[in-house]
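Subject: Sanity check before I submit

Could someone independently write out the structure tokens for this chain? I want to compare against mine line by line before I put it in a report. The sequence has 455 residues.
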Amino acid sequence: MKDSLKPKFGLFTALAMVVGTVVGIGIYFKATPVLVNTGGSESFALIAWISGAILTIIAGVVVSELASMTHNTGGLQSFGDQTWGEAFGFVIGWSQSILYMPLTLSIISFYSATFTLMFLGWPLNLKNLMLFTYGYYIAVNGINFISASLAGHLQKVMTILKLIPLLGIAVTGLFFAGDASGVLHFSGATVKHMSAFTAISTAMIPVLFAFEGWIFASTVAREIKNPQRNLPIAIMGGIVVIAVVYLMFTIGLLHVASGAEYAYNSGEVNVFSVANVLFGPLGGKIIQCFIVISALGVLNGYSLFSLRMPYSLALRGSFPGSRALLKISKRSNIPTTSALFMNCWTLVMISIGFGLYAQGQKHVFDVFGDVPVALFYIFYLSIIAGIWRLRHTCPEAPRPFRVPFLPLLAPIAILGSAYAVYGAFISHPYYMMGSVIIALLGLVVYKKCKIGAHS
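---
Independent answer below. Compare away.
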């Protein structure tokens, strides 16, 4: 089939895509875990943020070469097909549908609820958290079912609003020179001495969660004008802008309280309490309101994307119940069975999370954010290795964008990804092993579906 995608995006649009897809709410609830994982060390935390930015830039630039080569618009799954074959691509799509999206939606729903309760001044007990977590997820998906266009309009508004609290706290915090001890009730926590190698490694996954979304920007490589020039500038420039804002945000937080206070008193010293210190009770409430809106905007965006994942696998005939999953609603023009599957499966994941939360695992939803990101960095490093391989196996293939210094950049991206994954296995060994096993089950499902299709 003839490629119908034409270059239509200029540099500014491409840059905006990178910033728009990466900036979410992860920074609001991952800044503290980064400090927890580094034992409260501010220098280790800042190194982790900088390292995460560098790894994201290199990975984004390298993957963009593959994106410029492909004629498909399937994103990461298509990248898997092209580098290591259809079975590998299916495992990626399977993992997105079964693990990545349900777990990511769980943590976003949970923190949307948490931020709302903190804004309202209600207690963060199990009953309230469950009420708002389930309520938000069901309400957002109800809007998507009723009107996809309404959900799209809401997404545009929320994308703009989500930058307000981030920049507000970042800029104001940088110039804060007051005394917050009376408001935050400092406990005098001290930095815990940890190995730099392990501390930074375990902090990398929370950092990379905040940078997650960069892969989506690389999927439009074929549609960018003058990609050899504009694509690397857009990716590097966009990530640098985001990294600077994230660093400003983190340094702003550290001007209000020490890294040790965030690490050991996260229930009391958090982004909402900092907003109250920086802007006063009324201004703090306004910033908190914008954070809640930001959270709901991210929840809406990820929900819109997730509804179509099983459908995309069903198009290939390699997912159980593919025929049913292809059903499209004439009224809303969404794949209804695919959407219902994702909604129900995500609600199961949320319920598992709350079951563990009730048993005393208070940080289980943070783990739900870390594990899928770490799992997908295994896929990312495999794809980057595949891009390097394609330079040798398909040297004459058209490459509108060709990565300079690939033999240098590819190993850096692979080793950096492996370093972050190592930290995730150190922090969450059982969860990570479980996620890898579930991902590998995708191979069994793929083979059975293929055998069924040919029988």
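---
OP: Matches mine. For the report I'm noting this point. The two ends are 28 Å apart (CA to CA).
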